[in-house]
Specification:
Nucleotidyltransferase, domain 5; 5-stranded mixed β-sheet; 9 helices; alpha/beta
């Protein structure tokens, strides 16, 4: 955990609350970032009663004793298993909208509002939380963008954006599948360490793109090649990632084929998606996930204050 600095005069506080982590920023009235702090107390480790203490532990030094500081939160704090459920907004719609959901708090120094997620029923049922805020931030950084926003992560999202609205989207459990297979399946025995091999990744992406229906069989091949052909852990890890990302790209072909793609993500993972897309003739514009989330939370803050 990175503790909050002592006594910062924040006009408001932005927070991105994921399944694994919490990140917060102290923001001035002029919109400057005064301080940043993060914690490993994500939604997956908390009960509803734990949220306010976890937040106060991180941002307590930013709260003035004599006034109330607004806190704008996006992400999994608004999930059904989170702090309090924030209802989904059905697409097509702008990525952000009212009402924000008030979270129950006991400390008079803060008032917490949670950004609602997005949902769709057709063509397939889907939901997102947190990514809508990143999409809003991406649109703020790229005004007038029409195309597809790709957000790699535990549950990767491909969102069609037009005229400032999210028209439709599709989620893929690629990141979660990698974690489960690498840590809980038989494949874990051949994936020791954190080594990597770019050639193995590229080849696996191409294999999965060519025959995505063979994914389950190719996954077990990683185990067999480790036993019979000495497949090294670094190549096995890279191939596992390439097979899963390649299968995702094969299924997401209608989203990226012939489209302008904006890739919103964090460091190495976003770089892998860009690498996998390059042979397909797609050169996405890129934006760091943290910057997009913060820009989107600033949009939510302005929305919550209403017209001046």
């Amino acid at each position: 955990m990175t503790p909050a600095a002592d006594r910062i005069a924040a006009d408001w506080i932005a927070a991105d609350w994921g399944t694994s982590n919490l990140r917060a920023w102290a923001i001035s009235d002029a919109g400057a970032v005064l301080a940043q702090a993060d914690s490993d107390r994500g939604m997956g480790r908390l009960t509803p009663a734990d949220y306010e203490p976890a937040l106060l532990e991180l941002i307590g030094g930013w709260l003035a004793p004599a006034c109330t500081t607004p806190v704008l939160v996006c992400g999994m704090a608004g999930a059904r298993q989170g702090w309090t459920e924030a209802a989904y907004r059905p697409v097509p719609c702008p990525p952000l909208g009212l009402p924000l959901t008030a979270a129950p708090t006991a400390d008079p120094r803060l008032v917490v509002s949670i950004v609602p997620g997005l949902s769709q029923v057709r063509p397939s049922a889907d939901v997102m939380r947190g990514e809508e805020t990143q999409i809003a931030g991406a649109l703020a950084r790229h005004p007038g963008f029409d195309g597809v926003v790709c957000l790699p992560g535990t549950h990767s999202k491909w969102a069609e954006v037009s005229a400032g609205e999210v028209v439709s989207f599709r989620s893929f459990m690629t990141g979660e599948l990698f974690d489960l297979l690498a840590t809980q399946s038989v494949l874990r025995h051949g994936l020791a360490g954190d080594g990597w091999n770019d050639d193995a990744f590229d080849g696996a992406v191409a294999e999965a793109m060519a025959r995505p229906e063979a994914l389950a069989a190719r996954l077990f091949t990683l185990r067999a090649e480790g036993l019979l052909a000495g497949l090294s852990p670094d190549r096995a890890r890279a191939r596992l990632s390439g097979l899963l990302i390649g299968a995702e790209l094969a299924a997401a072909r209608p989203w990226w084929l012939g489209r302008d793609v904006l890739l919103v993500g964090a460091g190495p993972l976003a770089a892998l998606y860009a690498r996998a897309l390059a042979p397909l003739g797609v050169t996405p514009r890129t934006l760091p996930a943290e910057g997009a989330a913060l820009a989107g939370l600033a949009q939510a803050r302005a929305l919550s204050k209403g017209p001046r």
